[in-house]
């Protein structure tokens, strides 16, 4: 498990330490999903939806938005949508595979409540 990353000289925790499996999965996904695009970034955000209020939203983008937080590990850059920063700061992002699905999972210390299926949460 990774410790909290430090952000340059501000010495504050980055929003999302990534597990090695998630870095590898992003690399594989970038290479196979969009081979025509050379540099791809993944932006993590939250959307208002679900029975508990918020759910994670991942999207591929070609460049950061003006206020995105950039987190880098092993050559993979993850962008954190500035509007989601306070909801997901300190969250660990991991990759999980089982017989039913392959997906990113988030271990968010800010969650106060979540729905029964685990798809949405409240901070």
From TrEMBL:
<feature type="domain" description="Core">
    <location>
        <begin position="40"/>
        <end position="119"/>
    </location>
</feature>
<dbReference type="InterPro" id="IPR050322">
    <property type="entry name" value="Fe-S_cluster_asmbl/transfer"/>
</dbReference>
<dbReference type="Pfam" id="PF01521">
    <property type="entry name" value="Fe-S_biosyn"/>
</dbReference>
<protein>
    <recommendedName>
        <fullName>Iron-sulfur assembly protein 1</fullName>
    </recommendedName>
</protein>
<feature type="region of interest" description="Disordered">
    <location>
        <begin position="1"/>
        <end position="31"/>
    </location>
</feature>
<dbReference type="GO" id="GO:0005739">
    <property type="term" value="C:mitochondrion"/>
</dbReference>
<dbReference type="InterPro" id="IPR017870">
    <property type="entry name" value="FeS_cluster_insertion_CS"/>
</dbReference>
<dbReference type="InterPro" id="IPR035903">
    <property type="entry name" value="HesB-like_dom_sf"/>
</dbReference>
<comment type="function">
    <text>Involved in the assembly of mitochondrial and cytoplasmic iron-sulfur proteins. Probably involved in the binding of an intermediate of Fe/S cluster assembly.</text>
</comment>
<dbReference type="InterPro" id="IPR016092">
    <property type="entry name" value="ATAP"/>
</dbReference>
<dbReference type="InterPro" id="IPR000361">
    <property type="entry name" value="ATAP_core_dom"/>
</dbReference>
<comment type="similarity">
    <text>Belongs to the HesB/IscA family.</text>
</comment>
<dbReference type="GO" id="GO:0051537">
    <property type="term" value="F:2 iron, 2 sulfur cluster binding"/>
</dbReference>
<dbReference type="GO" id="GO:0016226">
    <property type="term" value="P:iron-sulfur cluster assembly"/>
</dbReference>
């Amino acid at each position: 498990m990774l410790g909290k990353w430090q952000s340059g000289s501000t010495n504050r925790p980055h929003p999302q330490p990534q597990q090695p499996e998630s870095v590898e999965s992003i690399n594989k996904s970038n290479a196979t999903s969009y081979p025509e695009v050379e540099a791809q970034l993944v932006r993590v955000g939250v959307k208002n939806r679900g029975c508990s209020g918020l759910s994670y939203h991942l999207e591929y983008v070609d460049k950061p938005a003006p206020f995105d937080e950039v987190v880098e590990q092993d050559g993979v850059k993850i962008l954190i949508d500035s509007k989601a920063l306070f909801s997901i700061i300190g969250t660990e992002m991991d990759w999980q595979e089982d017989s039913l699905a392959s997906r990113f999972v988030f271990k968010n210390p800010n969650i106060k409540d979540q729905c029964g299926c685990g798809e949405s949460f409240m901070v």
